[in-house]
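ok new one. same drill as before - structure tokens go in, u give me an amino acid for every spot. 331 of them this time. try not to just spam alanines like last time pls lmao
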């Protein structure tokens, strides 16, 4: 899916030299599945500091090359809190962070402690092989909350607008609530700084009705009753998994007559999206090893789905006005 790589600032500082960067060119970015971690918060500053201490620190061409490179690498960086400030050596600090909250891999000039998840850049360039360098963009994921959140964690920490789309989301069922609680924790607990992302859940009410019921005279009244019950359930259950001071937006859709069906499940952001095969819920059986296929959406599909749900002309009808739910978790 999306894998988070920690890059040693001293290594990146040498990439102003095209020869040293050639192997890594086009190896990072959303479409490759490799995203650079902003660890620590001042990672970019550390790169520049290492560059300025090098023999090329005053070379204007080298400065321009590195500046362009950093603009590319930082375009979609994964945000992390700064930890282990007492450790002065970046690689040792990153290894400590990795023990506490793992990266997919750490890429550095050397691997002096022979850590399995630390990739020596020199060796990687020479033979192109390391088990942690490989990235599966469509991995099968066990349908349990911890595994699901790990698969999409970088996306949840990276973007400003995060939209969960599941036409069957049920706040009264643990199989929906446990993953959603884990998603929310990743969004709000593991971000750095004071960023306050906008979080939404889009769901539907078509699941409560059969097609022939839509033709009955009392359908409008029944639709209102079902919608009111769903809204009440949302207000009752969701605040328990939303941190105090945070809020989410709920949007409830229904299919138009002869219109497009509302079926697929996604996590969408302003820049990318993940499509789920089964859904964003987990298996009811805690011992199950049932897996789901998660797919990073290509640009055209993402653009189309984003327009459907966020655009001015959605293919579905809103059953009620979108409404906010405020959190009470930890309050």
């Amino acid at each position: 899916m999306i894998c988070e790589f920690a890059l040693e600032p001293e290594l990146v500082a040498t990439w102003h030299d095209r020869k040293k960067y050639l192997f890594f060119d086009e190896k990072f970015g959303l479409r490759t599945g490799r995203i650079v971690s902003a660890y620590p918060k001042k990672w970019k500053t550390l790169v520049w500091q290492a560059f300025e201490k090098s023999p090329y620190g005053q070379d204007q061409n080298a400065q321009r090359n590195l500046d362009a490179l950093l603009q590319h690498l930082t375009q979609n960086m994964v945000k992390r809190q700064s930890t282990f400030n007492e450790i002065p050596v970046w690689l040792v600090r990153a290894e400590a962070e990795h023990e506490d909250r793992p990266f997919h891999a750490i890429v550095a000039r050397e691997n002096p402690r022979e850590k399995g998840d630390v990739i020596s850049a020199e060796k990687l360039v020479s033979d192109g092989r390391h088990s942690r360098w490989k990235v599966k963009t469509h991995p099968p994921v066990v349908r349990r909350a911890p595994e699901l959140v790990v698969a999409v964690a970088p996306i949840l920490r990276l973007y400003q607008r995060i939209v969960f789309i599941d036409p069957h989301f049920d706040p009264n069922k643990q199989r929906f609530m446990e993953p959603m609680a884990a998603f929310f924790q990743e969004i709000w607990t593991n971000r750095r700084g004071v960023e306050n992302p906008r979080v939404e859940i889009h769901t539907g009410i078509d699941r409560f009705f059969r097609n022939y019921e839509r033709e009955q005279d009392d359908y409008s009244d029944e639709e209102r009753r079902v919608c009111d019950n769903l809204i009440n359930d949302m207000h009752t259950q969701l605040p328990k998994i939303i941190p105090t001071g945070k809020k989410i937006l709920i949007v409830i859709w229904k299919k138009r007559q002869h219109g497009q069906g509302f079926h697929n499940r996604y996590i969408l952001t302003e820049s990318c999206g993940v499509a789920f095969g089964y859904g964003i819920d987990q298996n009811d059986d805690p011992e199950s090893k049932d897996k789901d296929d998660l797919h990073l959406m290509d640009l055209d599909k993402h653009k189309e789905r984003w327009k459907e749900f966020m655009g001015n002309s959605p293919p579905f009808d809103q059953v009620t006005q979108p409404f906010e739910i405020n959190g009470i978790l930890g309050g």
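Residues 219-237 form the longest helix (19 residues). and btw The first strand starts at residue 3 and ends at 7.
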